[in-house]
Structures are given as structure tokens and as C-alpha cells.
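User: Batch of two.

Assistant: Item 1 of 2:
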Amino acid sequence: MKKICWLAAVATLSISGSASAQATLSEISELYMVGYQTSWSAFELIKTSDHVFFYQGKVEGGDGVSNGSFRASPFGGDAVFSRPQVHAVEDKTLLSPATSPTAVINYGNMEGGDKNWYISESGNYRIVFDLENARVSISQDFSKVLPVITPSIYAVGDATVGGWTPAFGTPLTVDETDPYIFTYQTYMKGGAFKFSLRNDKEWDGNWIHPVQNTAFGADGLKKCAMEVFRGADLNDNQWTVSEAGTYKITLDLRNMEMSAEYLSDKVIANHLYLVGDLTNWSFQPMEQVSPNVFEATFDNCESGKRFRASMAPVWGTHLRPEVDNTELAIDNKDGLDIKTDQNEDYNWAIKEPGTYKIRFDLNKMKVSANNEPTTSITEIIQDGGDVTCEYFNLQGIRVMNPVAGEVYIQRTGTTVRKVIIR
């Protein structure tokens, strides 16, 4: 017992060397696994609290010499071997769920040679690095929920804009007041999907799956249990959208649960992006001028410039015309039809040169040009009543408590009008 306490104390001693190195375990904010299972490159571990990180995935067992061994590093990339390491006290320290599930962590330059832990039997493991208590532990029991702390999550799959290309994953939005909550509102096609924590790791990153294959449609989904594993194909359960429509997906990473709310069979978007020749093929955010209506102005447009729109700044299924190179005239206020299920690489084209204010009205599924909104009040209404409706200010921001005498955009079902409250 004295030995363990002394070693834990050693782990907090200052480390000489680079000024950028974390001097103690408690200063480490990122941790990477290094070993046989990672081909001795740095694999980013999942953060579950300020000083606790974990790996959850497949581990090939071995003798600790040629395979099965591992340690950790606070540094990724080329710095992984040139800086202090999170390592075992003695090389070839066995970790086994049955006989030796925990061991002491040391932090230093491993003087005298490598000091690795190893696992002898291949299988799926949870490896937890508790830097606060200077302990590493392993288990094959995944029933205890470990919260996940991550700066990013991406939706990937047939039901999403970018399909099954991880680099085109649709980014979720983190809640401003709760870093464990991520949301994703978009029109989803029928099909399967899951989530990745990074969009630059292809299939070898950390992926979030449901505990079992789960389908949902207009009835939505509440608190579906989910888990995270290294590799997209490990325990490869998926969610499946059985009914196309607009959904609001909520991930609760504190409790590791996913919920889905069905909003409409129509397209409802909070964001829209233009992309094409008109934007030099970069995704340009459009301004939301009212619920489900977006605009962007382009000066001195050249004829023939092409464009389409996307509900996320990624390549994949976009909003397109029915026929390629459908021309949008500079005075086309009635609009051209928008298709959501157009799989061909079709675009609209600017018909004549000039300044275009391009409007995408997703309520009508029309794209038009220079269609200035009316500035007149369409109706004066009494405040209150039993009518179920939503109010937005003229910038498109929802207003929960409209004030008498003010002008608002009122949405009742699919009907949108400008009103003044009396």
C-alpha cells in the first residue's frame, strides 16, 4: 500500500524538458493511446471528465513484447514519443479483468526503456485512464454509462445530407448552456445513420451507435440508449429513419441517450447554404428572413453562373432543380420548383447579368429572384385567443411573448403572414 501511494505521488512531480509539456497528470487536457492496437500512432481517447479518459473498442491480446502492449501520451502527432508518457511502473504489466483489473499510472520519460501495460486475451475492452487517482483499469462490462465530453459530433449515413462519407458528416450544434447536449434539425431521407466524434478520421475514429438497431418515424423516439466505440464497424448497430421528414435529433452525452422529434413531412430548416459557381464552390450561409425563407444577394452576377442549396455545409444531397441548368431570370418573382430528392448533379443557372437577391422559400419549395417582401401589414389581429400559432420578429427570430402594437411574422400551420398585435 505504501508503494502505491508513493508511486501516485511520483506521478505529480514536475517534469523537466519542453516548456509546453504538462508538468503533472492533473494538467493534462487531452490523452492519446499508443501501442500495438494503434500501430504505435496516437489515437485520441474519449474524455469523460476533467481528468478521466477512456478507450472502448477492440484490443488484440499478446505477450506484451510483440503485441498486446500499450501506454498513453498527452501529445498527438509527431510529439507522441518525444515528450513525457503516461505509462506503467514496470514494463509488461499485465491488465486482466479477472485477476488484475487496475494498475498504477506513472508519468515521465520512461528512463531505462519502455514501460507498457499489456492485455493477454483479445476482445472488446473498456480501458479507463484516471489521471486524478493515477490509476488505469480495464473491463469488458460496458453497462456503466460514462459521459462523453467532445467539441464536435457529425451525423453520417443514408438518411443524412452527406451520406456514408465520414468527411461529409453533418455537424451537430452544441447547446450554449450545456456542453453535453447536441442537436440536429434537418430533413432526413429514409435510411440508416450513426454519429462520429470527428470528421477527419474516416472509419477509425470514435463512433456513437444505438445499443441495438432502432427504427423510428413520425412517432419519434425517446431516450434511446447509445454507446461509443472505436471504429465504425464495432457493434455496428444503427438508427433507421422509416418515414422521411424533418426531425429534431437530440443527443444527451451525459446520459448517453438519443431522442428524435418528428416535426413535419415538409422541409423545415434553420440554416441554408448556397454553393456553386456563384460562390466559387464554397458554402455561403444565407440569411433567414422569416421562418423557412432564406435570401442572399449577389452583385454583378454573370449569366450562366450555377448554384444550388444545402441544409448543411457539406457535399451530398442538396436542394436542386428538376432539370439541369434551369435558368433563373433576374425578375422571376414566381419562382422555380425545388426538389429534395434529386440525386443528379443538377443546378440552377443565372439567366442574365445583374444583381440578384436569390430567395429560397421552403414553405412553397420555390427559388426566386428579387422577390422583395411586402412591407405592408396584411392583418391586424387581437392578442390572445385559442389560435395555435408561432410569432417571429422581422429578423426571423422566434418570439415567445409578442407585445401589443409590434409587427411580427405569424405562422399558423403552413400559413405565414405579417401582422400587428392589438
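Item 2 of 2:
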Amino acid sequence: MNAQITQTTSFIGGRHVPSLTTYANVDPATGEHLGDVSRGGGDEVDRAVKIAARAQREWKRSSPEQRSKLLFTTAEVIRANRDELASLESEDTGKPLTQAYSDVDVCARYFEFYGHTIESYYGHSIPMGEDMHVYTRRESYGVTGHIVAWNYPLQLIGRAAATSLATGNCAVAKPADETPRSTVRLAELIHSVGYPDGVFNVVTGLGAEAGAALAAHPGIAHLGFVGSTQVGSQIAHAAADRVIPTVLELGGKSANIVFSDADVDAAIPSLVRSIIQNAGQTCSAGSRLIVAQDVHAEVVEKMAAAMEEVTIGYGLDDPMLGPLISKKQQARVEGFLTHIGNAEILTGGTRPEGLAADLTGGAFITPTLVDNVSPGSTIAQEEVFGPVVAAMAFGDEEEAIALANGTDYGLVSALWTQNVSRAHRVAAEVEAGQVFVNTYGAGGGVELPFGGFKKSGYGREKSIEALDEYTQTKTVAVKL
């Protein structure tokens, strides 16, 4: 079931817009050429923003019911094209096909969820006395810009686009350099169900060109970014220069905290899944393992054994673990593993053996558990973005909390304990946007607010809260 899109262009105003130059789209599992991508830049971004601004004048006047119907229809057409979208996603990212199907389903769910919620999204009436009628309105910003990462292309653009369009904005998206095809295909599907031309637009190209142009464009009224903290800081500066709001979902170094009373056997599958999902290339990956001293040996031994059972291969063959996004990312992950100090690699840390001949040039790395990591070391502090977990031990609850909070990031954390009081107590102290107990959601469902503390970003995507991010409040006071 190989995807057949070999020429990927920008999609602006309901039409494909090629650029003068292209760059190669590469299969991360084989290194083979999947096709060519239009290298859009400032001109394409300017065209897309202006067309979106014209479309928004009509779109913002549509009723919540009208938008709701189109959002529901979008969800239906996404599901109708599930096989094609999953194939595109798996080829571009390298992720296992089952995970790619999940991404398609979640993308559809965003449109469905916001189709429901937008019809019940109201302003407030404020009592100010019998001679005054005061109320608030939630109004759209105008044209929203979206620069998204390569790890979950459909999920990331789905949650941004669905929220933006539901609230009466129009959108211009810049997909990641490496993974543009599913976003362009989504734009085609959105256009096909009857949205006005220009409501949702996609500009393909390189981040330093098209992405930078989108972030700096004066016609963008609201900006969202998913990616590294370093680039997110640059995006925030660009937005601050024009005094526009931003939603930033950035890096993470999320911790699984395993207490001595945890059900270890029940926890192990989730601990492994939290670091191998999407080859560990997840901002909310469970990349730190903080374990009570008296069960530390048992936990790391069982986790290492489970990691050694992980199947590795080509995404469309649906293994448990696919390749990293690129050879560059593979080299980056390997670089971290050469600087672990006195820590010990219990399993992994190598390129897998025994792969099919056509995969030998792929960006693979085995699931890796590094034990006895110093809390202040690079591998414990920085986001690796690969299937690498750094394990360390703690003596008491206070130390566990200190270790969990001991990085610049605060996206997700999980606690494993049978003590309900401890679960609530520690959850209140952990500095993270989401805290799971006896499970690991890696961002959780569509209904859960998602966003970071500290350098993991600000603002919230997902859930009803996201509607507030994409609207601005107007207060109207009428003297009676």
C-alpha cells in the first residue's frame, strides 16, 4: 500500500501552486527518493495570507452551525481516505502503520470534537444593574499561522486547523520540511467538502524560508508553533515584534516516576511504549525513568528485557519501532550516547542488525535504556528525540519530586503507585502540563488540555480550552 504522491506543491486558495524550485522528499527507512516538494517562500506565503484574509471576511460571518456541519463532514472525508492518509504518514515519517492509522483517526476526531463544541461556545452575560446590559463576545483573530513539526504531521495540523476554522479564523499552515504530503492532502480534502476558497492553505518549503516568512508576515494575527525550544524562542520573538499572540508546544523531558508500591509488571508495557512510540520522537515521550531505590533493579531489568523484544522495520510492514526521521537525527541520537559519563547502557544504543537489505541505509536505532544516569548530565537534561530512556534512582518522595522537576522542561509526567494520597500529593508538586497516574498518555486524548510548563511552551491545544486560544474577548456594555 505505497502512497503515490510524487509531486507535492503548496495548496493556496483551493488550488495547487508549484514553486520555481523543489527539494527531495526522502523515505527515512530506505533513504530512497519519494518525490519532489515545492520549495515555497515569501511569495507563496504572501499569496496565501492575502487569500486567507479575503476568505476570512466571509468565513467569520458564518454561523457556528454552518461551521459545525463542515467540520463534521471533514471528519467523515478524512475517515473515508484513511488508508491513503496513513500510508502517506507512514512513508514520510517512518512510523509503524498502526501508529499512522491512529494519527489519521485522531485528526478526524479533532474536526468532530470541535464540530460539537463550537455550537456550545458562548460569551457571558455580566450583571451590572438593571439599567445596564453587559455581555462578552468571543471573536476570531483573522488569519492564523501554523508551523508544525514532523513527528505527528496529521495530528498537529488537525488540532490546529480544526480549532482555528471552528472559531471563524482562516489558516495558513507550513508543514515540516520532511513531512508535507499528508498536510497537503488534508488541504485538498478540506477544500472538497465545501469550505470557501482560501479558508485553509498550505505552503510547502523549508523552515528557514517559508516558515520564517510565515512567522514574520504582517497579515498573520495569531501564530502557533510545534517544535524545538530553540526555534520556538525565535518564533516567539517574531510574534513579539508584531505583538501577536502565540501558542508554543516545545520540547520535553518527561518522567515516569515509579514508587516502591507500584505494580511493576503492569507498568512495564506503558513504560516501554512511552519511549518507543514514534521512535521516541515525541515531545511528551517518557524519556526519564525515576525509580524508587528498592525496586530500581527489578524495574530496569524488566524494562530492558521488554525493550529487547521490540520489533524493528519498515513502517508500512507495521513493526513496533520504525526509523528515526532522518540520518541527521540518527547521528544526533548516537551523539548523545557517546556522552553518558559513568552511566551504563543496559540495552540498545546500536543500529539494528538483521534488517532487510533495502533498510540498511535507513535511520534506525535500537531501543536504548541508559541506567544510573547522573541527574545533571546531558542525557538526563536535554531532549534526545529518539528511543532512549535515562534511568535513575530516588530514596524518598521529596527526592523523586526534585528529580522530576529538575529539568528546564515540564510537559508530561506519570506516577506509578497504589497510594491514592501520594498520587494526588505528588501530582500537585510535579511541574508539568499533564500528570498521569498508573498510565501514560503521551499527550492524552483530544478532550484533554495539552501544553507545557517552563521551557516546554505556553498556551493550550486540545480540549475546550483551545477555543479560548483562538478567540479574543470583546466586552459590550449597553446603557438601557
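The chain has a mean pLDDT of 97.
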